[in-house]
C-alpha cells in the first residue's frame, strides 16, 4: 500500500477530558480456558451430547472464554436472562446490555447437569454445563431488548424465525478457543498492546473505514490528550447487505499499513462478535466489551448499532439514542463517551467538519450515498478519494459481489 496522503484539515470539538484507566467490568477479567490438559480431557469424556456451533454461537463462545463478556462465566441461566432482559442488569445488579444465550431448537434430550461438547470448525472448543434449560418468551425479549417485536427488524426476525426455540445456560469450560478465517485477539492480548498510563479511546464499527470514519478517529484521538486510539471492529455475522467479515479484515489491514507511519498512536484489533443491531442497548454492550479490552473512552457516533425496517426503510432508533444511553451510564461503567455528529466533506480547502459546523458556516456538503457507492463499486466507476481510501476501494472492487453478506 502507498503512503497515506493527508487530507485538508479537519475541524472537531473538544468533547472529553483524560481519565485514569479502570479495570474490567465486574472487577476481574474472566479466563474460562481449562489450563490442565487431563482436566480438559476428562470434561470432554463426560459429555452426553455434541453440538456443532454456527458462527454466531462460536463468536459468543470466544467472547465468553476470553473475558470479553466479563463478568459472565458462561451462557446466561434463566434467572440471569430474565434479569438482563427486563432490567438491563445481572442478578448481582451489574449493568449488562444484552442477554448472552445459547439456543437450541430441540432440548428434549438434555437434562440439568448434563455436559454438552461444543464444536466449531472441526475442533472441540468448550464444554457447557447445563444448569438451566427453558423455552423463553421471545416476543417479550424482542420488545424489551430491541424495543420492538416487528419482524421488519432483521435481528428480531432472525431470533423469532430462525434461531432455536430453547435456551441452555450454565458455566462454560474452554478446551480450545474458537478460530476464525481472520486474526482475532483476546482482551488480555489487546491489553498487552496498550501502553501503560495512557487513556485508550475505542472505536467499534462493522463496515470498512472510509474517509469520514477516519477523520472522526483523528478527532477523537486529538480530543483525548495523550491517548491511544483502539480501532476495534466486529468481524462476525451482521445484517444482510453488509460487507463480509473476511473482506472487511482485508480493508482494515490495508488501512493499518497505509496509515501506520503517520498515526503510530493507533492500535488495531479484531473482535469475533455477532452484531444484534439492538441500538441503544447494544451500545451499552459495546461499552462493556471495550472496557474489558482496556478502553477508558468509547466513541459513539450517530445511529450506532441501528437498523431499518426491511419493508419501509424507516429507522428503528433515533440517531442519537445510543449516545444518550451511553452518557447516562458512563460514570457507572467508568468509560467516558466521546460523542460526535456525522463528519461531512465540504471541499478540498477545508476537508471534513462536523455536520452542525458545516450548517452554521453555510458550507456546501459534498455527498456520496452508500447506494451510489455500491453501484459504482459494482460497475467499476471511479470513487473519489475524498470519500474512500483507494486501498480499501481496490479490495472491495476485487471481491465484487462476494464482498456482500
Can you walk through the features of this model?
The chain is an alpha/beta fold and 405 residues long. Helices cover 34% and strands 14% of the residues. Helix 8 runs antiparallel to helix 13 and helix 9 packs parallel to helix 10. The protein is globular. It starts with 36 loop residues before the first helix and ends in a 6-residue tail after the last helix.
Structural class: alpha/beta
Mean pLDDT: 91
Cα distance spanning the termini: 26 Å
Major sheet details: 7 strands, mixed
SSE arrangement, N to C? HEHEHEEEEHHEHEHEHEHEHEEEHHH
Radius of gyration (CA) equals: 21 Å
Count of individual helical segments: 13
In percent terms, what proportion of residues is strand? 5-15%
Mass-distribution shape: globular
Low-pLDDT windows of residues: 1-21
SSE order and pairing:
Elements: H1 37-45, E1 49-52, H2 55-65, E2 74-75, H3 78-87, E3 103-104, E4 115-120, E5 123-129, E6 132-134, H4 138-146, H5 154-162, E7 166-174, H6 187-193, E8 200-203, H7 211-223, E9 228-231, H8 245-259, E10 266-268, H9 280-292, E11 297-300, H10 321-333, E12 336-339, E13 343-345, E14 352-354, H11 355-361, H12 370-379, H13 390-399
Parallel strand pairs: 1-4, 8-9, 8-11, 9-10, 11-12
Antiparallel strand pairs: 2-7, 3-7, 4-5, 5-7, 6-7, 13-14
Amino acid at each position: 500500500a502507498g503512503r497515506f496522503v493527508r487530507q485538508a484539515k479537519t475541524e472537531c470539538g473538544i468533547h472529553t477530558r483524560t481519565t485514569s484507566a479502570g479495570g474490567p467490568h465486574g472487577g476481574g477479567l474472566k479466563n474460562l480456558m481449562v489450563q490442565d490438559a487431563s482436566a480438559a480431557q476428562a470434561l470432554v469424556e463426560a459429555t452426553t451430547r455434541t453440538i456443532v456451533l454456527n458462527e454466531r454461537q462460536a463468536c459468543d463462545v470466544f467472547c465468553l472464554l476470553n473475558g470479553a463478556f466479563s463478568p459472565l462465566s458462561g451462557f446466561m441461566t434463566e434467572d440471569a436472562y430474565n434479569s438482563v432482559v427486563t432490567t438491563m442488569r445481572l442478578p448481582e445488579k451489574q449493568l449488562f446490555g444484552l442477554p448472552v444465550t445459547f439456543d437450541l431448537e430441540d432440548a428434549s434430550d438434555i437434562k440439568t447437569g448434563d455436559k454438552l461438547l461444543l464444536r466449531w470448525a472441526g475442533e472441540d472448543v468448550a464444554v457447557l454445563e447445563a444448569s438451566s434449560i427453558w423455552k423463553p418468551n421471545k416476543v417479550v425479549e424482542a420488545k424489551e431488548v430491541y424495543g420492538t417485536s416487528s419482524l421488519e427488524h432483521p435481528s428480531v426476525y432472525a431470533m423469532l424465525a430462525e434461531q432455536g426455540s430453547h435456551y441452555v445456560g450454565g458455566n462454560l469450560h474452554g478446551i480450545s478457543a474458537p478460530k476464525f478465517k481472520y486474526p482475532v485477539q483476546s482482551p488480555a492480548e489487546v491489553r498487552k498492546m496498550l501502553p501503560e498510563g495512557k487513556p485508550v479511546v475505542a472505536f467499534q464499527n462493522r463496515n470498512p473505514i472510509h474517509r469520514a470514519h477516519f477523520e472522526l478517529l483523528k478527532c477523537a484521538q486529538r480530543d483525548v490528550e495523550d491517548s491511544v486510539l483502539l480501532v476495534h471492529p466486529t468481524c462476525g455475522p451482521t445484517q444482510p447487505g453488509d460487507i463480509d467479515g473476511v473482506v472487511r479484515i482485508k480493508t482494515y489491514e490495508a488501512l493499518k499499513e497505509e496509515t501506520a507511519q503517520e498515526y503510530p498512536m493507533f492500535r488495531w484489533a479484531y473482535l469475533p462478535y455477532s452484531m444484534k443491531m439492538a441500538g441503544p442497548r447494544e451500545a451499552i454492550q459495546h461499552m462493556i466489551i471495550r472496557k474489558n479490552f482496556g478502553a477508558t473512552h468509547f466513541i459513539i457516533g450517530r445511529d450506532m448499532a441501528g437498523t431499518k425496517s426491511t419493508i419501509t426503510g424507516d429507522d428503528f432508533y433515533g440517531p442519537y439514542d445510543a449516545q444518550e444511553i451511553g452518557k447516562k451510564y458512563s460514570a457507572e461503567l467508568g468509560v467516558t463517551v466521546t460523542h460526535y455528529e456525522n463528519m461531512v466533506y465540504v471541499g478540498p480547502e477545508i476537508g471534513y467538519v462536523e455536520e452542525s459546523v458545516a450548517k452554521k458556516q453555510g458550507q456546501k456538503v459534498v455527498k456520496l450515498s452508500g447506494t451510489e457507492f455500491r453501484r459504482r463499486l459494482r460497475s467499476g466507476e471511479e470513487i473519489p478519494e475524498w470519500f474512500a481510501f483507494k486501498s480499501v476501494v481496490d479490495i472491495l472492487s476485487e471481491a465484487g459481489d462476494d464482498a456482500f453478506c
